[in-house]
């Protein structure tokens, strides 16, 4: 009997929700002028990040089709020297939910411009720690892990391997310096030592000379267990492994890399996400694709659970203890209410395999072991939240 | 009181159990066959790529295997281990359930957000039903009128009318639902949520949630307590629930929905099945590559049996 009634009612009037809700989403992208690098072997995909957002919308839309929730993605792109303020105004006119793919300073400009509009913004492009600390904004959440989280993941592994004594080579770009800072802070946090440090400031052509150049360059680093490389623009780092004076493992921006995501992650159902992404984009899924996907899925999950598209309702839910996102990393993902950073396990990968996933066993925490990665509540420098 | 007596009974009954447990090894492309009497692997049978779901026909003359990466459901003669033919399954079949009519197979196509219904006699697809993303858990009501698909990323149980092969309800559950079973004569539906860490109990007639089971394993963070497969005892009074990377199986009172016990098993426990007389339970432990044998009456793990790499599904053959 109940079936007769239920059948009369079409697919869309399922028992969960009836009201139609439209959820427009914007992906706001500003191009970045990048300096040349030594090798062009791995060009940056044209749709980096954006393809992850597209997959997130497709995932949301399937769920939405059973609930009467409609998701639509608008992409707005501006050149590096383009008019970001106008683009931001256009974005906010379309939707209060905006995923940002742009350099750190632009993120701050957009967040400040959007202040008071009630919009929820997601940083899916910058690891910079100050965005989660002294320069945090209450309307800016972060799905990409911070440099501190990446560094802590690596240091937990170094500690576990008893690679207690490390050396560091850093490039000269702001991103390199920021990651190097995070590595130093994290080494201190976990009681590890960085004994030798050098700055890479060469302009030699390493495709020809790596085998001659790097051994000499690394000779005066002395002895160490692990060589850290901070080369976030992937300029020289690829030529370091196997060319060091001492036969030592390499980690950081190259070789063993901590990040939000990598094509070699396959556990916890990740193989399915990788294959969906590959079908959609025709390439492997990278960290920024994952961050954009997670931002869109966070909004979708919040809309599904609250049955609302009101930004204030969604923001409160996303930052609450009730929120959890299944992110294919083996644990529910949630947000730190004190700085808007998404908690997440950090895979440590080589080009060919997952080596470990942080937090490593044994790093305990009173709330969640995920908070052993990155800036924790007691040490927060962000005052914009709560 | 009865708990003290039961072990003796089990010991006495032990020599005459009989039967086999068939385990699919996801990353070895094989099935390990465990003899219930000797508790040893007696046969290893090659399959298609990435075997996961496994189930027998009602008379046990055929075994169906989801060979996910071969995009096929394979039909095997369990005596010879020979693959008789493939069924058209749709892409990436992960899990399935055989309708009580012994003929219709309801298959979750994980990569395609589709449930495929295949007639095992004519070997034809009779319906494809759009469901949520990453369908996995599959169940059919004992009277055969309702089929269930749960979708891992959409976080729903989809209710399918088996006459029309159309959805008549979609109900939200906690994150990443993995497994579904009807119980209490078909009046209740249980759905496990891996990331949510819960089992939702539905009243089948109204599709309304009537209860939720949460788990708490001492010394394990709640994030890592992840319910996946579960099975009921014959009297439907007790459920055994695999809790994934917490490496425990929970024993749940199916009437009060209270957890009565936790049993330590191998690493990342997935699915399970009982011996023919239901005195032993066999759990597949994905990461440790073994099967834990649980004495059902004692609620104790009594043996680990090494099988292939990443054991996934389990099915009993008397």
Provide the low-confidence segments of chain A as ranges: 1-17
Instruction: Note the quaternary state here.
Output: heterodimer
Q: Largest beta sheet of chain A, briefly?
A: 5 strands, parallel
Gyration radius of chain B (Cα, Å) is 18 Å
Helix content of chain A: 25-40%
Helices and strands of chain A, in order, run as: HEHEHEHEEHEHEHEEEHHHEEEEE
Q: What's the name of the CATH homologous superfamily of the largest domain in chain A?
A: Response regulator
Total number of helices of chain B: 1
> How are the strands of the biggest sheet of chain A laid out side by side?
2-1-3-4-5
CATH level 1 class label of the largest domain in chain A: Alpha Beta
Radius of gyration of chain A: 22 Å
How many β-strands of chain A, per DSSP? 15
Low-confidence stretches of chain B: 1-16
CATH fold assignment of the largest domain in chain A: Rossmann fold
Helix residue percentage of chain B:
under 10%
Mean pLDDT of chain B, to the nearest integer, reads: 93
Distance between the termini of chain A: 51 Å
Alpha-carbon distance between the two ends of chain B? 31 Å
Q: What is the CATH architecture assignment of the largest domain in chain A?
A: 3-Layer(aba) Sandwich
Question: Could you describe the 3D structure shown?
Answer:
The complex is a heterodimer of chains A (386) and B (318). By secondary structure, chain A is of the alpha/beta class. Chain A has two domains: 14-145 and 262-347 and 360-379, Response regulator (Rossmann fold); 148-258, Response regulator (Rossmann fold, 3-Layer(aba) Sandwich). Chain A has helices at residues 2-8, 50-67, 84-94, 104-113, 147-161, 174-189, 206-219, 270-281, 287-306, 311-318, and strands at residues 21-30, 69-78, 97-101, 120-123, 140-142, 165-170, 193-199, 226-230, 250-252, 257-258, 325-326, 332-335, 342-343, 346-349, 354-358. A five-stranded parallel beta sheet of chain A has the order 2-1-3-4-5, with helices on both faces. In chain A, helix 2 (50-67) packs across helix 8 (270-281). Chain A starts with a helix and ends in a 28-residue tail after the last strand. The model of chain A is unreliable at 1-17 (pLDDT under 50). In chain B, the strands form seven sheets. Chain B has a four-stranded antiparallel beta sheet with strand order 3-2-1-28, with no helix packed on it. Chain B has a four-stranded antiparallel beta sheet with strand order 4-5-6-7, with no helix packed on it. In chain B, strands 8-9-10-11 form a four-stranded antiparallel beta sheet, with no helix packed on it. The two termini of chain B are 31 Å apart. The chains are: A alpha/beta (386), B mainly beta (318). Chains A and B meet through helix 1, helix 2, helix 8 and strand 11 of A and strand 14 and strand 15 of B.
């Amino acid at each position: 009997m109940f079936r007769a009634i239920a059948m009369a009612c079409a697919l869309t009037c399922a028992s969960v929700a009836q009201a139609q809700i439209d959820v427009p989403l914007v992906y706001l992208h500003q191009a970045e002028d990048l300096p040349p690098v030594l090798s062009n072997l791995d060009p940056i995909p044209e749709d980096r990040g954006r393809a992850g957002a597209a997959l997130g919308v497709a995932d949301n839309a399937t769920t939405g089709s059973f609930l009467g929730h409609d998701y639509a993605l608008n992409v707005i792109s501006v050149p590096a020297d383009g008019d970001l303020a106008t683009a931001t105004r256009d974005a906010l006119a379309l939707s209060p939910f905006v995923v940002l793919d742009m350099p750190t300073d632009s993120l701050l400009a957009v967040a400040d411009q959007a202040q008071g509009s009630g919009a929820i913004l997601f940083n899916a492009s910058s690891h910079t720690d100050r965005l989660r600390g002294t320069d945090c904004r209450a309307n800016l959440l972060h799905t990409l892990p911070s440099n501190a989280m990446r560094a802590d993941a690596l240091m937990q592994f170094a500690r576990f391997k008893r690679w207690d004594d490390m050396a560091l080579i850093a490039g000269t770009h702001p991103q390199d310096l920021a990651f190097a800072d995070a590595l130093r802070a994290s080494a201190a946090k976990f009681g590890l030592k960085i004994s030798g440090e050098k700055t890479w400031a060469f302009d030699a052509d390493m495709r020809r000379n790596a085998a001659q150049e790097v051994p000499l360059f690394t000779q005066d680093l002395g002895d160490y267990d692990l060589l850290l490389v901070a080369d976030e623009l992937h300029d020289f780092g690829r030529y370091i492994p196997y060319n060091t004076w001492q036969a030592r493992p390499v980690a950081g921006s190259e070789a063993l890399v901590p990040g939000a995501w990598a094509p070699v992650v396959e556990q916890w159902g990740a193989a399915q996400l990788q294959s969906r992404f590959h079908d959609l984009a025709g390439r492997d899924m990278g960290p920024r694709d994952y961050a954009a996907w997670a931002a869109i899925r966070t909004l979708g999950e919040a809309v599904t659970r609250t049955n609302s598209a009101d930004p204030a309702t969604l923001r409160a839910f996303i930052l609450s203890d009730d929120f959890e996102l299944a992110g294919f990393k083996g644990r529910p993902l949630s947000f730190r209410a004190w700085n808007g950073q998404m908690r997440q396990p950090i895979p440590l990968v080589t080009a060919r395999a997952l080596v470990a996933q942080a937090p490593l066993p044994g790093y305990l925490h009173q709330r969640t072991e995920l908070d052993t990665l990155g800036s924790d509540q007691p040490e927060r420098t962000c005052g914009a939240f709560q | 009181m009865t708990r003290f007596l039961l072990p003796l009974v089990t010991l006495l009954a032990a020599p005459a159990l009989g039967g086999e447990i068939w385990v699919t090894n996801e990353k070895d492309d094989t099935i390990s066959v465990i003899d219930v009497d000797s508790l040893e692997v007696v046969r290893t049978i090659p399959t298609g790529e990435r075997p996961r779901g496994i189930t027998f026909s009602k008379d046990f003359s055929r075994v169906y295997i989801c060979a996910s990466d071969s995009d096929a459901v394979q039909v095997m003669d369990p005596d010879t281990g020979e693959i008789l033919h493939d069924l058209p399954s749709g892409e990436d079949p992960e899990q399935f359930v055989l309708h009580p009519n012994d003929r219709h197979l309801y298959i979750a196509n994980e990569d395609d957000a589709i449930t495929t219904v295949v007639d095992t006699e004519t070997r034809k697809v009779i319906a494809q039903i759009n469901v949520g993303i990453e369908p996995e858990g599959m169940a059919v009501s004992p009277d055969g009128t309702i089929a269930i698909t749960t979708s891992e990323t959409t976080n729903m149980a989809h209710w399918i009318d088996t006459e029309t092969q159309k959805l008549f309800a979609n109900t939200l559950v906690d994150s990443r639902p993995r497994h579904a079973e009807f119980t209490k004569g078909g009046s209740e539906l249980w759905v496990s949520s891996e990331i949510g860490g819960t089992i939702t109990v539905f009243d089948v007639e109204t599709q309304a949630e009537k209860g939720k089971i949460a788990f708490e394993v001492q010394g394990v963070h709640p994030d890592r307590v992840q319910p996946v497969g579960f099975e009921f005892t014959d009297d439907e009074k007790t459920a055994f629930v695999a809790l994934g990377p917490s490496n425990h199986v929970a024993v749940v009172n199916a009437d009060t929905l209270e957890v009565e016990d936790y049993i330590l098993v191998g690493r990342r426990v997935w699915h399970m099945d009982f011996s023919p007389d239901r005195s032993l339970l066999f759990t597949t432990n994905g990461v440790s590559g073994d099967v834990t044998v649980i004495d059902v009456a004692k609620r104790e793990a009594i043996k680990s049996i090494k099988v292939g790499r990443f054991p996934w599904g389990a099915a009993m053959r008397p």
